[in-house]
Amino acid sequence: MAAAPRPSFHGAAVMGLLLFFLGPTVAALSLSSAKTFNGSCIEAEREALFSFKAGVTSDPSRRLRSWRGQDCCHWYGVRCSTRTGHVVKLDLRNGFFQYRFLRDDEQVVNSLGGQISSSLLALRHLKHLDLSGNVLGGGTSIPEFIGSLKSLTYLNLSYINFGGRVLPQLGNLTKLVYLDIQLDDDAFAYSADVSWIARLRSLEYLDMSGLKLSAVVDWVHAVNNLPKLRVLHLSDCELNTSIPSLQHHNFTVLEELDLSDNNSLLLRPIGTGILRMIDLRSNNIVGDIRDLIQRLPKCSWNSVQDLNLVESNITGMALKSAFNLSSLRILDIASNQLNGSVPVEIGALKFLTELSIGNNSLIGVISEDHLSGLVDTIPDWFWTTFSNAKTLDLSYNQISGVIPESICRLSYLRLLDFSKNQLTGGIPDCDRKELKQWDRSSSNNASRVNSASSYGFEIRTLLLNNNSLSGHIPIEITRFVNLRILDLANNTFSGVIPQSLVNLEALTNDVTYLPDNPFELLYQCVLEIRQHKNIQSDGMEMISLKWISIWV
């Protein structure tokens, strides 16, 4: 192998001369760089942050307790450029707000309170600003000066209790890639003109959910000028006019579309992008589900993974068109006016992990050519086809018979809802360590609770209300050591409440809120035993239980 060439004496000499003549300059630059890395920050920006802190009148979680001294680049939520020392990121979001199962007062307790100071204008190099989930809006409009932070690429002011009119100055933030100004349920803000959106041509993520846009004539035209847009959330915006055709609009890279909780009528194709998530729940779509699927761009048929059409007033005799969406992982079409049977094509959805078709009028005969919602038993092949399912909701149908041992093949199941059917018996004795929630309420012929000897040690929610359970409350229930919610309402139990229920430590935690969202039940700790006239407490004390209802 040839030896590496040696550096020439001439080159070394030239370098030496350069260092000789430029030595003082290089040294000065080195000292300047050292200032950037020694932990101190730029004085004017530090003073701006101090002024911002002065506008915060409440900090119960003490997020700003580190905001003192000279080293602002190491304060909580502050990040400086390692090259220039300028503040480039301010992230003071309320971390507790992401846990939506918490009560409103728990979210507020951990929120910053006060106002957003205009001193932030001194942070001329600020690229990332996240103040979400805090009480900093005071019910007034988003401050006009926010539109002058022109270096921003990321802005999240969601759930800050802003109100009034959204000012068009946000359109000055032409470098924005991410914009989230969604509102809490209690807030009210509106806009009659969203043409300013068209100036944000670098935008990839836009969420204005809750912002009232009923007076906006053509929001589609404004959004159409965002060639890089991948995520669009306009939930609960009062978009009460028919959505015009998007087929020839510039949504070529759109991946997520959320228009839920509006009154929109999708009469024409809704896009030409590579849609992966479509949420149109709680709309007045009106029409056959087959027509709705046909309106989707054909290029999205292989990309859609999440389709939500709950309470959208859709009808149809069959669901065959839905199963052209071969990549579906989540399909939720509950609470509509669907009837007929489910075609065999559902078996081809090999990626499906969550299926919800409850509260429809599905009827027929269960066989290998049909599925669910039928007046018959569940076929054995079903459990093999959906062996990777995590959520299974077959509620509000007319399924009868017993739950077969084949259910043990669903090794990843965490939530199972067979409520409002005609099932009998109990869950088979198998290893259900992943199962977190079981709802077999209102299965009117149920007569017993199976042994929990080898399954269900991870189960957290057990709903047996509205059945035909009788006798003593079964001791097997107490083997669910992680149980947090137990509902035995509207049965015919007699005798005493088992003393061993006291040993269910998770059931006696201090949680006093029961949410509407069933997924949030996984976090709650509730005991519900009502409509049992013969139940006696026998002196049992549950000192730490804060939510108990025993109605007689």
TrEMBL record:
GO cellular component: plasma membrane
Domain Leucine-rich repeat-containing N-terminal plant-type: 44-81
InterPro entries: Leu-rich_rpt, Leu-rich_rpt_typical-subtyp, LRR_dom_sf, LRR_N_plant-typ, LRR_R13L4/SHOC2-like, RLP23-like
Subcellular location: Cell membrane
Superkingdom of this protein's organism: Eukaryota
Coiled coil, from the record: none
Chief subcellular location: membrane
Keywords: Cell membrane, Glycoprotein, Leucine-rich repeat, Membrane, Repeat, Signal, Transmembrane, Transmembrane helix
Signal sequence, start to end: 1-28
Domain Disease resistance R13L4/SHOC-2-like LRR residue range list: 114-239
Pfam families: LRR_1 (PF00560), LRR_14 (PF23598), LRRNT_2 (PF08263)
PANTHER family for this protein: LEUCINE-RICH REPEAT-CONTAINING N-TERMINAL PLANT-TYPE DOMAIN-CONTAINING PROTEIN (PTHR48063:SF108), LRR RECEPTOR-LIKE KINASE (PTHR48063)
The name this protein goes by in its record: Leucine-rich repeat-containing N-terminal plant-type domain-containing protein
Organism: Digitaria exilis
